Structures are given as structure tokens and as C-alpha cells.
Amino acid sequence: MERMKELIALLRQAAKAYYQEDREMMSNLEYDRLYDELQQLEQTSGVVLSDSPTQKVGYTVLSNLEKVRHDSPILSLDKTKEPEKLQSFLDEQKGILSWKLDGLTIVLTYRDGVLVQAITRGNGEIGEDVTHNAKVFANLPLQISFPGELVLRGEGVISYSEFMRINEELGEGDAYKNPRNLCSGTVRQLDSAVAARRRVQLIAFTLVHAEGKALSDSKAENMQWLKSLGFDVVESKVVTKDTVLDALEYFRSRITANDIASDGLVLTYDSISYSKSLGRTAKFPKDSIAFKWADETAETTLREIEWNTSRTGLMNPIAIFDPVELEGTTVSRASVHNVSILQELALGVGDTIRVYKANMIIPQIAENLTKSGTAEIPKQCFVCGGETEIRSLKDGTALYCTNPSCQAQRVQMLSHFVSRDAMNIEGLSEETLKKFLEKGFVNQYPDLFRLSEHQAQIQSMEGFGEKSYANLMASIEKAKHTTLPHFIYALGINHVGLRNAKLLCQAFDYDLQAIQEATQEQLVEIEGFGEIIAHSIYQYFHNDSHLALINEVFAQLHLQMQTQQVPTESKLAGLTFVITGDLTQYQNRKELAAYIEENGGKVTGSVTKKTNYLINNDVDSMSAKNKKAKELGIPILDEMAFIAQFATKKEDE
Known about the structure:
A hairpin with a 3-residue loop joins strand 18 and strand 19. The strands form six sheets. Strands 15, 16, 17, 18, 19, 20 and 21 form a seven-stranded antiparallel β-sheet that branches. The chain has a five-stranded mixed β-sheet with strand order 3-14-13-4-12. 35% of the residues lie in helices and 22% in strands. Residues 649-653 have low confidence and may be disordered. It contains 24 helices and 25 strands. The protein has 653 residues and is an alpha+beta fold.
């Protein structure tokens, strides 16, 4: 299993380098050798993980999530914050102590070695069918070596690192507060492509049923058996009343290094027969108990509410209070998140507040003991003095600075402009940009390409010298040879990530003038765009100050525009395709999509009235895409029909 996971990670990394970064990590011979090794291990073990390169899993779009009643209710756990209670709970029994993962509980069912159903916990009695999403979880086996019916429970989770990456892509207005909320929203999406992109993981924590297998009476041994089938299982320790407190301290010491959010621990009896003999109460099973970290709290005095302004003008309130010791560190700041929470807490300078670390990591205000409610919502930005306004967001109301020339916004905007997926100018950290702004070297992004005018001053700055300056100039020169999608993404247009920037350029044949002159109606017609994205793009390119900056930077950059070269009389020109299912004539869907796009066609992810053809080798399948295509009267072609109609001859034939 460990070798399979190593191979999957390596092959995925190599594929990403080849297809997305135009570079080779290894030769084709080496890739094929590792691929064959992985395939052989899968055949030998009978285990196939969902993110294996050997699998070509199609995405599914549902119209709604079906409600399903659980065979047996999923109860909540009784809770304690007293370590000694864990000792008395165990008495003379052996137990298992493990993380209480902070995600979404899911019940999985396998039959004949294949995943057939995944149901969320819901209210404990009735959950929702999310099988379409479970099939694209990053680490979940689609196929296992056990032939009988297997039922287990696990926690759907998104790691902290993925959480931060996804929030950055979503933007501030659509960002999630914590990984649990993000995971819950993702797993319950109707489009499984979302769950795949967000790399949801499933961590197994309970074996419920294994048809025909003589199971051990030990839950710990059964969890090891699940691990042998390819499942990631929750980290745990077998304990007695004499060792449970040491195990508790072990987990406590690992909290800050853990990339998966947890909100405590779970202690359960190891013996299945003993657990069954205890039964349950109306609310809780009697064989398990949750240990919640006794959040260390401290009373302190609120001294100030600081407002930090971001690239989009969002002003985040930060509570500044007298320093206190929490979980071994000194804390004096805590995010209040938005205006709604500020008002709910009724904060005011001088209030006595109680603070803690959520999940022992993130400083938060637990409660306001004074509740003066005297905190004022600033009418001007503290950085630029510009007017502010309150806007409604997904999770409440937030404050925005309306001045686009605000220096705080300027620093964040420039940081975005030079970031890797944008103009990719190395050597310009946020702190460096801030210094350049303060010294007047930079005001707007075109000034980044005139930094050579300040050579002497830059070389004399702390941390800079001739070599650092030369490296910076080389990076700026290299950035002049970017593509139009990367440049448009660098502009920081709200709701326009790199993917949407590419779709925008494709829709207008990589013609910036055509993009600038596009109407909202034309923008809405782009596959995957809606009213909000279209309005944001239209507003940006109909702002005279934005156009002036674009014209200025183009004059300096001589930006090489990417054009869509379409062969004369291409049969694919102007046609929109959706590709699904396994391919045999092409190496994968990316290769087929690249062929279509190189010849003037377009490939999208879902079937709509704008789709011209659906490509699926299983023409008669009852998949959601096939059903949608038939409803709309869209032709379904297998590969051979596509090649006969649109391709001359495969290059490798």
C-alpha cells in the first residue's frame, strides 16, 4: 500500500509537470515503467485508489441529493473535558484513543469489492446520498479485495493546507470560515468535479459490517484490516486506564503539527462484544466517549479594534487585547472575522473579554463579559481616509474601503500581480513592495517595469545589493513574455481566477480589444460564466483608469499575445464538446481535449444546450451526461465516430 501511494504521488506530480507546466520530470520510458508497476500492484492487491493514474473517473452532476435512511442511527457521543473521566470510563477494559476529526461523517458501503453508496450522517436517522462525490475523494479506494458487503464509517475532511489554497481561489467574499464548513459544502455539491478539485479525503474510524468475514473482537485489529484494504484510518493508540493520560498528552503535543482539523479525541472500548453488551441510551452509545480539550481561556481587556484592508478593499476587524498566555504561547490578537460577529459580541474598547484558541490553534474571543457595544464601525479607511460601506456576504456583513487608490489595497493588489500564477516576478515580497510604495518607486503595476529608474536607491536598501537587483531585473524581463490569460488573471478582476481568464481569452480568440469591447450579454454566453462574473469583467474593462493602466503596461511590455491558430477549414472550429468515460484511441481526455482545442473547438465539463457533441465510448449508458444529451437532442459519439467525422488520422497510427 505504501509503495502504491508513493507511485501515485510521483506519477501525478510527473503528469502535472508535463501537462500543466510544460516540463518533464522523467522520460516516457520511466513514466511507463512506474505506471506498469502501479498497475501490477493494483492487480495483485485488488485495491485501486480513487486518485490512481490508472483510473479515468468521470464527473457526475446531479439535480438534487437523494435522502436515505440509515440502517441504524448514528448517535452523538457523550462528552467530557476531564482527563480523569477517561480513566474511570475504561476501568479494567482496554480502549482505543483516537482523533475526533472535525469534518463530515459519511457511511460507505462496498459490494463485490466496489464502492456502491456513500451517505452523510445527516440528522443521525436520515442522510444524503453523496456517492458521486465519494468516488472522486483523493484517497478513497474505488475497488477493494474484499468480495462481501462491507460497511464502514469515516470522516470526510479537507486539510488546512488545501483549505487555505481553496479560500485564496474563492476570494474573500466567498471564502469559508474553517475546513469543516468547506468540507461540508463541498461533499454536498451536486457537481462531483468540485469535490475532485478540492481534494476531499476520507479517514475511516469504524468498521460496521463485513459480510462473511470472521472478524476479530478487537476494534483496533479490525481497523488494521481496513488499512490493509487501502483505507486511510484515523491515528489511534490502544490504552488502559494506566496509559490513557500519557496517550492524551501525546495527541495534545501533535495538535499544532496536524494538517487535519480535530476538535478533541474519542475513547472507545476495544472489545466489540463488550461494547454490544452495553447497549445505548436514547442519545449516546455507552461504549464511547468524546474528550473535548478543556479550552484554556483567559480574561483580558480589549484595547483596540484594528481594521486591516485587503486587495479587494475588504476591511477585517482584529481585536487587540492585553497579552495573555494560552496553550504555551503569548496571545494579544484575535480575528473577529466580520462586522456581523463584531456586533454579535457587542464589543467595545475597554471591555473585559474571555479569549481561547479554537482547536488549540486559532485565537478567538469566547465571550464579552462587559458587552458595552461601543465599538464604532469606521466611516473612513484608516489607511487612505476613503469612505467605507457595509456589504452583505455569504456569512454575514462586512466592511469595505471604496477607494481603489488605497495604499493597503495597493500592496495586496501588487502582491497578486507578481504572484506565480500571474506575472510570476520573483524577488518582490509583500514587505519589499510596501517599501517600494513608501519610497515612491511604485504606485501602480506599470511602475514595476520601470524599477530600473531607481537602481541606485534599490541597491542601497537593506537586503538588496548588486546581485539581488540583477536577479530582480532578470525576473521582470522574463515576466514580459507571459500569456494573455496570465496577464488578465494578474489584473485581479473580482471572480476571475486563472481558469476563468483562460476561458475568457478562448471565447474572444485571445483578442484583448475584443474582450474590452464585449457586452455583458456576450460574456454571460461564455460556458461556465454567469451574471456575477460577466458583470465583474464588464465593469473592469469599462473603467477608464483600468484601461489607461492596461495601455501603459502594454506599451512597456510588448506583451506577446497568444493567438488561437486554427487550421484552415477545420471541421472542429466553433464546436463545443464534452468528453466523458474511458478512452482507448487517445491516451486520456486531456490529449483528446488538446486536439479539439488546437483545431478550433472547445471542451467544457458539463452538457448544456450550447454543447454540440458528447464524446462517450459507452453511447448507450444511463450516465447523467448521456441522459442530458439525449434530453437536449445532442449527438453522442464514441471515439471511432469522432475520428471518422472530425479527425484525419491519429499521429501515432
